[in-house]
Design brief:
This protein has helices spanning 19-29, 57-68, 84-97, 119-129, 140-147, 155-166, 211-224, 229-245, and strands at 5-13, 33-45, 48-54, 73-78, 102-104, 135-136, 172-175, 184-191, 194-201. The chain has a domain at 5-137 and 211-249: Ribokinase (UDP-N-acetylmuramoyl-L-alanine:D-glutamate ligase). The longest helix is centred in the C-terminal third of the chain and has 17 residues, at 229-245. By secondary structure, it is of the alpha/beta class. It is globular, with a radius of gyration of 17 Å. Strand 8 and strand 9 form a beta hairpin. A 6-stranded mixed beta sheet has the order 3-2-1-4-5-6.
């Protein structure tokens, strides 16, 4: 059999809960073969990030070319991009290989609060990488940072920010509501077709390490399997909600522990 294949381009999390490790776990849990191109190594655990070692951009490009040169990649997920020159290398790789689906998670800050993207790289993210994406998946603070505005606090403001993000050149935006308030966590899928609100109960747990990485990877997995964008987002939302709900079954680390990627299996 030839499984659907997805590529994650992101940073490594030494504690295994986020980044490349979360992406590959997500792909596996959802029946997709995962390949990777690592942009950075982090010294990281559930309590925070203590160090970041950047992979040279030409080696990021070499990884991308090695994967596309051999594997039939159906979708790409992009996470931590580290620096402007890394963004340039990724954009050039996307131009060379023209993947059908690109899900961009604009990772700027870790769950622990540690900043992961230098300010000078944000403009390159806006102007170069976002126009190459099929979907971007910012949370409320990231959407605000991309627009250099305060975080949205109402549905109308979220929709307005989403439409301004569309104007940066991507066809769809998923603004995640995990940082919001209230009994429900509402994500907003905004595209030229309108706005779809995706609702799930807000789960009372501190074990949310890797949630954003895993959601974007789950969407990429759905697209790799041939789902349309709305279906891929809906299925990913349901899966991530179940993974968060099962997170307390795991006892990993002393801080923000990981979600349970394999909740369906054990």
């Amino acid at each position: 059999m030839t499984p659907p294949i997805a590529l994650t381009i992101a940073g490594s999390d030494s504690s295994g809960g986020a980044g490349i490790q979360a992406d590959l776990k997500t792909f596996a849990a959802l029946g997709v073969y995962g390949a990777s191109a690592i942009t950075a190594l982090t010294a990281q655990n559930t309590t925070g990030v203590t160090g970041i070692h950047q992979v040279p951009p030409d080696f990021v490009a070499a990884q991308i070319d090695a994967v596309f040169g051999d594997l039939d990649v159906k979708a790409v997920k992009i996470g931590m991009v580290v620096q402007r020159t890394t963004i340039d290398a990724i954009v050039a790789g996307l131009e060379r290989w023209s993947p059908k689906h690109v899900v961009l998670d604009p990772v700027m800050v870790a769950t622990s609060g540690d900043r992961l993207l230098p300010t000078e790289a944000v403009e390159a993210l806006r102007s170069k990488l976002i126009p190459r994406a099929s979907l971007i998946t910012p949370n409320l603070p990231e959407a605000a940072a991309l627009l250099d505005e305060p975080a949205a606090s109402s549905e109308a403001a979220i929709e307005s920010q989403g439409r301004r993000l569309l104007a940066l050149g991507c066809p769809a935006v998923l603004i995640k509501g995990g940082h919001g308030q209230g009994p429900e966590s509402i994500d907003y899928l905004i595209s030229g077709n309108g706005v779809i609100a995706l609702t799930a109960p807000r789960i009372d747990t501190r074990n949310t390490h890797g949630t954003g990485c895993s959601l974007s990877s789950a969407i990429a997995a759905g697209l790799a399997k041939g789902e349309d964008m709305e279906s891929a987002v809906r299925h990913a939302k349901a899966w991530i909600s179940a993974a968060i709900a099962a997170a307390d079954r795991l006892d990993v680390g002393r801080g923000n522990g990981p979600i349970h990627h394999f909740h369906k299996f054990y």
